[in-house]
Design goal:
Layout lengths: L18 E10 L4 E2 L4 H15 L1 H9 L6 E3 L7 E3 L2 E3 L6 E7 L2 H10 L6 E2 L6 E13 L1 H6 L8 E9 L1 E3 L2 E3 L4 H15 L6 H11 E14 L5 E13 L8 H17 L12 E2 L12 H21 L4 H19 L4 H8 L3 H14 L5
Antiparallel strand pairs: 1-6, 1-8, 2-5, 3-6, 4-5, 7-8, 9-13, 9-14, 10-11, 12-13
Helix pairs in contact: 1-2, 5-6, 5-7, 8-9, 9-11, 10-11
């Protein structure tokens, strides 16, 4: 999707702002190569920017509770396949989005944008920052809640990067209303200071929210630091049943507020690694084209993880699955030609541990070390 910027957009907002979304325009310095899971590098670079100027906030983002007060996107723009890597195009401008869901992160961004670094540093692929603009208007949770009901009374959401939920230890790649609004409400309750009783609202969603139309496709991609994700992209139109439109005004108001909240918080899990990017409109043409190799890598990780899990199933428990996914991620990326050192850095694991896991994984498949 082609983006355009308003030249006079001001990179400032009021001190009470709780949510904001930014988009950076980036230009490669050459025809550099990216590894398929390069969003790990974007994630690490962003956290390092926070660390350099706000150690306390950095510690919270690294070590805080599971709900993270920010999201990042993958790069939006043409990436060509080059062997097992993605190749940046020197003449191409890429767009990278960052959103903040809490006042401390919003305040940090307000200072950061006044003195931006010159480059986003990815492994062997620096990107020059050409501009930074506001993509999602500065607002507060109260303003989202108090906004009038849209006309027509519906919520259109587009999922422009693979989106998935966790359910009973597995990925669940369907945008059921209860899954969507559980995802949004969990973050709303954590950050808004306007908490809502979760169970009763989700019961109401299950009874009242209907899917009027959808255009959804599924894909399997490598994402985050370990493993793969089966997710969906596409668009969905949601409305309320006739019965519900005559009752529960508070739930109705929250329903529309959470729809407006979705682009800020993203949908599902791994939103700090580029997944679950969401827009508040029906926009099928905006859905990201997932590279063939990223899908292949995800499928290879899934294949290996299943084999390792089967071999280790006698041990049982979630630890078996986690170890299997870690082994699978390391071996699949090693098969792709990545160095063990680079994999160790991305996974934030000691090099010797990664080396040992690679050997154990090969032996489990009876491959030569």
């Amino acid at each position: 999707m082609k983006r355009s910027f308003k030249k006079n957009t001001s990179l400032s907002w009021s001190a009470d702002t709780e949510l904001v979304g930014l988009v950076l325009a980036l230009r490669p310095t050459g025809a550099d190569l990216l590894y398929p899971q390069y969003t790990i590098g974007l994630h690490a670079w962003f956290l390092d920017q926070v660390r350099q100027t706000s150690p306390d906030l950095s510690a919270y983002l690294h070590d805080g509770e599971s709900e993270k007060p920010f999201t990042i996107s993958a790069l939006e723009g043409a990436l060509k396949m080059s062997g097992k890597h993605l190749q940046l195009q020197p003449e191409q401008t890429y767009f990278w989005s960052i959103t903040a869901l809490s006042q401390p992160v919003v305040q940090w961004l307000a200072e950061w944008v006044q003195c931006l670094p010159t480059q986003v540093e990815l492994r062997n692929a620096p990107l020059t920052i050409q501009s930074c603009q506001i993509a999602l208007a500065p607002t507060t949770y109260r303003q989202l809640l108090d906004a009038p009901i849209p006309k027509p009374a519906q919520v259109n959401l587009s999922f422009v990067s693979p989106t998935s939920f966790r359910r009973k230890g597995h990925h669940f790649p369907l945008p059921l209303p209860t899954n969507l609004f559980h995802s949004y409400l969990r973050r709303w309750n954590y950050f808004s200071n306007l908490p809502v009783e979760q169970e009763s609202f989700l019961d109401w969603v299950d009874e009242s929210v209907i899917i009027r139309r959808h255009q959804i496709a599924s894909t399997k991609v490598a994402a985050g630091k370990r493993g793969m994700v089966t997710g969906f992209t596409g668009a969905i139109e949601l409305g309320l049943s006739k019965k519900s439109s005559l009752a529960s005004p508070q739930n109705q108001q929250l329903f529309y507020a959470l729809g407006r909240f979705a682009p800020y918080c993203g949908t599902g899990h791994k939103t700090t690694f580029g997944l679950g990017q969401t827009r508040y409109q029906w926009q099928i043409e905006a859905t990201e084209k997932i590279s063939t190799h990223s899908q292949q890598l995800g499928e290879r990780i899934a294949e290996l993880a299943e084999q390792f899990t089967t071999q280790r199933k006698r041990t049982g428990g979630t630890r078996t699955q986690k170890i299997a996914e870690t082994w699978a991620t390391i071996l699949a990326r090693r098969e792709d030609g990545e160095s063990l050192q680079a994999i160790a850095v991305d996974l934030e694991m000691p090099y010797e541990t990664v080396k040992t896991y690679a050997k154990l994984a090969r032996r489990a498949l009876r491959q030569p070390d």
